[in-house]
From TrEMBL:
Pfam families: Glucosamine_iso (PF01182). Catalyzes the reversible isomerization-deamination of glucosamine 6-phosphate (GlcN6P) to form fructose 6-phosphate (Fru6P) and ammonium ion. Its EC number is 3.5.99.6. The keyword Nucleotide-binding does not apply. It comes from the Bacteria. Residues 17-225 form the Glucosamine/galactosamine-6-phosphate isomerase domain. This is Glucosamine-6-phosphate deaminase. NCBIfam families: nagB, PRK00443.1-4. GO terms for cellular component: cytoplasm. Belongs to the glucosamine/galactosamine-6-phosphate isomerase family. NagB subfamily. Keywords: Allosteric enzyme, Carbohydrate metabolism, Hydrolase. Allosterically activated by N-acetylglucosamine 6-phosphate (GlcNAc6P).
Length: 261
């Protein structure tokens, strides 16, 4: 796991966008895994700028989102399919229909989850997955106690996640749905490269557990320690509880230029 501590969201955006651009350069038909939430916005904004200026294109690429609230009406602005369209997809040049998400309005939820797994598999799997992390250590919406071998399924959101996400629902925690569909931890682990972004002091404990804690369903993100290619992009505040912070900084400073992330 590579831990990179950067100055601010703008630097995180640039490093993350470099990785996506390099992938699209060598594989224009790449499959991207797209998180919603605040953390990846700097990367999406930077990619939108580069797409505008013609240095990167998503024309041949495909995308899969991580998760979806159950039961939000199709036109609800916080439905993740609408969120990803607004913050990223409509700002770049994906082909129509190239980005999909799990169907939180499906009548048969288990069938919709199985179909989503099959769609990812049929697309050849995710080449690069962008992730955020919850304050309780979730990735996608795999809350504490999630099976480390889980696949796409329905989950109940923790109170803490609903409180954290109330900011997207006018501060009203009761407006945040109680259930979601989420890619499982085993699903996420099948991506070739994972880039996890975390900023701010409120993420510091979850980041410490992710990087330095024991692998445990209590901190689901710790399963990433088993993946051979994970890049963690942090600002100083999110890194403040890391025991080996000086080592991570030194490693990045002295990293061979040819290595990439
Ligand atoms: C959303 C997702 C979640 C978020 C996490 C952090 O698709 O997968 O795991 O990444 O809740 O959210 P933010 O980035 O808003 O702090």
């Amino acid at each position: 796991m590579e831990v990179i501590i950067l100055q601010d969201a703008a630097e995180i955006g640039a490093v993350g966008a470099d990785a996506v651009a390099a992938l699209l350069d060598r594989k224009p038909e790449a499959v991207l895994g797209l998180a919603t939430g605040s953390s990846p916005l700097a990367i999406y904004d930077e990619l939108a700028r580069r797409c505008d200026s013609g240095t990167v294109s998503f024309r041949g690429a495909r995308g899969f989102t991580l998760d979806e609230y159950v039961g939000l009406p199709a036109e609800h602005p916080q439905r993740y399919r609408n969120v990803i369209d607004e913050v990223f997809v409509c700002k770049v040049d994906f082909a129509p229909g190239a980005v999909q998400g799990p169907d939180g309005l499906a009548a048969d939820i288990p069938a919709a989850c199985a179909e989503y797994e099959a769609a990812i598999r049929d697309a050849g799997g995710v080449d690069l997955q962008i992730l955020g992390i919850g304050t309780d250590g979730h990735i996608a919406f795999n809350e504490p106690g999630s099976s480390l071998g889980s696949r796409t399924r329905i989950k109940t959101l923790t109170r803490q996640t609903r409180v954290d996400n109330a900011r997207f629902f006018g501060g009203d925690v009761d407006a945040v749905p109680t259930h979601c569909l989420t890619q499982g931890l085993a699903t996420i682990l099948e991506a070739s490269h994972l880039i996890l972004v975390a900023t701010g002091r409120q993420k510091a404990e979850a980041v410490h557990q992710l990087v330095e804690g024991p692998v445990s369903a209590m901190w689901p993100a710790t399963i990433l320690q088993l993946h051979p290619h994970v890049t963690v992009l942090l600002d100083g505040a999110a890194a403040q509880r890391l025991q080996l912070v000086d080592y991570y900084r030194e490693t990045y400073r002295s990293k061979p230029e040819w290595q990439g992330i």
